[in-house]
Amino acid sequence: MQAFVDTSWAPGAASLRAGTSATTVRCQPGLSLSEHYAAVRARTEALVAALGPEDMVVQSMPDASPAKWHLAHTTWFFETFLLGPNVPGYEVFDAEFGYLFNSYYEAIGPRHPRPLRGLLTRPPTDRVIAYRHHVDTHMRAFLAGAVGPELEALVRLGFAHEEQHQELLVMDVQHLFAQSPLKPAFDPAWSAPAPGPTGRFRPVGGGPVRIGVVDEPFAFDNEGPRHTVWLEPFEMADRLVTNGQWLAFMALGGYRRADLWLSDGWAQRQEEGWESPLYWQHDGEAWSHMTPGGWRPVDPDAPVTHVSYYEAEAFARWAGARLPTEAEWEHAMRTRDDLEQVDDVAWQWTASSYSPYPGFRAADDAVGEYNGKFMIGQMVLRGGASVTPVGHARISYRNFYRPGQRWMFSGVRLARDPAFTPDGDRLAFLRDTLAGLSSSPKTFSPKYFYDGAGSDLFEAICVTPEYYPTRTETALLREIAPALATGIPQGAVLLELGSGASDKTRMLLDAAPWISAYVPVDISAAALDGAVTRLREAYPSLAVYPVVGDFTQAIEVPKALAGRPVVAFFPGSTIGNFTPAEAIALLRSVRERLGPGARFIVGADQVKDVDVLLAAYDDAAGVTAAFNRNVLVRIDRELGGDFDPEAFEHRAVWNAELDRIEMHLVSREAQRVTVAGQSFAFAAGESIHTENSHKFTPASFARLAEAGGWRIEREWISAAPAFGVFSLVAAS
């Protein structure tokens, strides 16, 4: 592997890949081994240039090593494996260093115990630097001569070895600095990986695929031999899991649910008291964490790092996905060009244990100890990190750590199986769909309307001439927003259930600029992504914590916002989609989650002329009909159904006895459909009851609120077509 040095590094500054002050080592044909050697060695010394002598000697835990030891060990490698055996008459710099700075090479001889490296106050740092310069002088002379293919391969192994220790050095110093109450920065110029949108799953084909290193100037022995594996089709996330998603995992009890965790992981979580990723701390108001750039706020949009395999696996279960195998990871990276954050953010845990490829055999000499003897009890990570030297990693690169380790820059990329993946959301969709089609009469849950297309169609419904609720409620909210704001405490968190496009939210945010954070909860990731992007552009100082989920489940305010007053917002008369019993259960659930003194702003459509109601739910342009039938399209796509959406007619019906509009999909003919391998018969004219929209009077809504543990503090009813907004307080 050839390289050149980007000399933008400023002397005296630590140099990391993600920082603007980084010295980077890149693949560049045409440079000599000597030039590549100089580049790698210079970067190591640049990394420690800003460290003091005291920083260089301390070892913060047994897994870490002092910075001084890294400087000496990487030098010992070149002296032991290249200069000593190949330069006649070479004299070692110090005979004691072989014992002090050998890491794990049993064939070389005994060594100082790893957990005690931090006790090596001698030799002092200046002698270690002198050791490096001594070896550098002899290596330059050695590389100036003829170097055969076998020795060149060993030299390149030395380069890769030192680059690995450059990353380890950053990890170890960051861990050391995190123990200090001063929280010093390793590199103040370090810039965190750029945040981005929520990731999406991309399909990846299966079949027999080739895995392993190919056409690389250098690779470790564990990256081969290249071999064939069989993969079933799967889906891979195009971005890494974010801090915001991890905050949701934490808020919903991810660290308290043993059912999500592997047994050994749960035991370690309990023993070590894990409640968040490594380095995270909560100050009572917000989360912060240690980075190479020092102590910084946790950015919800940035990828999560410093999580163990156990945490990654638990998160994947919670998210209804899984970790990819290393073969899946490599195949996806080789065959798709739309996967981001591959090797510049965090190493990505895989579901694969670290074991030899078919046909692997370690060399019989000391260098053969480099990888092979560690192939037990460890898990493979793929990719690369923000602190990995540029050009060091490859698609075939196999990093490995024990499943409980967290101080490395490790993150999470999710995978899942297509169509019938056993993820929570899809399992619930499948379960509810099969149950609804098996009932009499047949029913669907309306919450499954809101995939990406469904959310877009609903926004289109809201601007049809017939659909009055959105226009009427919006006008009413605009008028009463100042009055609503008087009930919103200073620094409050606004929690919106079923947030959709979050358009109505803006009126509250404008009327109450003292709202400190906004937590939109929606089942549609696509709708949430668009809304959050627009809100962050419009309200740059507002903290936004999006939660993709079903708000009828146990959605909680993120832990980062604990202790702040919360006002829940539930516009759009969505409460009318529930049966009275379901609405009461939801009201009680929100009451219990928000606690005493909570406030709840609810929009509720009012009873009115039947013709007005029917037109609103069966517009002349057919947008509502398309919205209703879209759930059949989604079932076909996600659950393997074979519905013909056009074989079902959209129908809106007023149920006077229950004060509700009902939406149905009516079979135009006798037919049979299949979902997930189960067959369901429809008679001509038989319907699927897809949605209710209950209408209220002020009195009926007051009774509903009271049954749910709330009392109406104020109410506003618009002019015809009547719509109501109710400000509720928790009943004592």
The helical percent reads: 25-40%
Sheet with the most strands, sense and barrel status: 8 strands, mixed
Structural class by helix and strand composition: alpha/beta
Number of strands: 28
* Proportion in β-strands: 15-25%
Distance between the termini: 72 Å
Low-confidence stretches: 1-28
Which outline best applies? elongated
Mean pLDDT: 88
Q: Count the helices. How many?
A: 19
**Measured on Cα atoms, how large is the radius of gyration?**
31 Å
Write the SSE topology.
Elements lengths: L3 E2 L19 E2 L6 H15 L5 H5 L9 H20 L10 H5 L23 H20 L4 H30 L22 E4 L2 E5 L15 E5 L2 E4 L5 H9 L11 H10 L7 E3 L4 E5 L2 E4 L11 H10 L7 H10 L11 E7 L25 E4 L16 E3 L8 E2 L3 E2 L7 H15 L3 E2 L8 H10 L6 H18 L7 E5 L7 H7 L5 E6 L2 H14 L4 E2 L2 E2 L17 E5 L9 H15 L4 E7 L4 H7 L6 H17 L8 E8 L4 E8 L3 E5 L2 E5 L4 E8 L3 H10 L2 E8 L5 E8 L2
Parallel strand pairs: 10-13, 15-26, 16-17, 16-20, 17-18, 17-19, 20-21
Antiparallel strand pairs: 1-2, 3-6, 4-5, 6-14, 7-8, 8-9, 10-11, 11-12, 21-28, 22-23, 23-26, 24-25, 27-28
Helix pairs in contact: 1-5, 1-6, 3-5, 3-6, 12-18
Account of the protein in words:
There is one protein chain. The protein is an alpha/beta fold and 732 residues long. The protein contains 19 helices and 28 strands. Strands 16, 17, 18, 19, 20, 21, 27 and 28 form an eight-stranded mixed beta sheet that branches. A four-stranded mixed beta sheet has the order 12-11-10-13. A four-stranded mixed beta sheet has the order 15-26-23-22. α16 (580-594) links the parallel β20 (566-570) and β21 (599-605). α1 packs parallel to α6, α3 (67-86) packs parallel to α5 and α3 (67-86) packs antiparallel against α6 (149-178). The longest helix has 30 residues, at 149-178. It is elongated, with a radius of gyration of 31 Å. The termini are far apart.
